[in-house]
Amino acid sequence: MPASILLIEDNEQNRYLATFLLKSRGYSVTEAVDGPKGIELAIRGGFDLVLLDIQLPGMDGYTVATVLREKPETKEIPIVAVTSYAMVGDREKALASGCSGYIEKPINPDTFISQIERFLPAGGRNTQ
Ligand code: MN
Q1: Ligand 1 is a single-atom ion; what residues have CB below 5 A from it?
Q2: pLDDT, block means (10 residues), the chain with 128 residues
Q3: Bridge partner list, 80
Q4: pTM (two decimals)
């Protein structure tokens, strides 16, 4: 079974690119455009990894990560933050709020998948 990834990202272009790359690799992708919706979906379950934009309108990614870490249903799930390169301190804050790791925006299509797979069980190799 392909790994299932929950993508929480408000920007349509970023969402499109990440989903395209993940689906091309055989992953199942579910999209959420804001934090509350992402949390709702994550609690419902079935995801192997959460890819979390930090700069979200309303509830930011740090808060989303904190909430996911507090809930028994989601406290173990790997969370990869997507942080903007320019924002000094974003990475440290992301890790402090419970993210497993981070990747920097803009997404690099050549390295994106390998960056994500480091955080998937079995390295994400069990696709198909
Ligand atoms: Mn954003």
Answers
A1: 10-11, 53, 55
A2: 94 97 97 98 96 96 98 97 82 94 94 95 56
A3: 51, 101
A4: 0.93
Ligand 1 centroid – CA 11 distance (Å)? 5
* 45 CA to centre of ligand 1 in angstroms: 23
C-alpha of residue 128 to centroid of ligand 1, in Å: 31
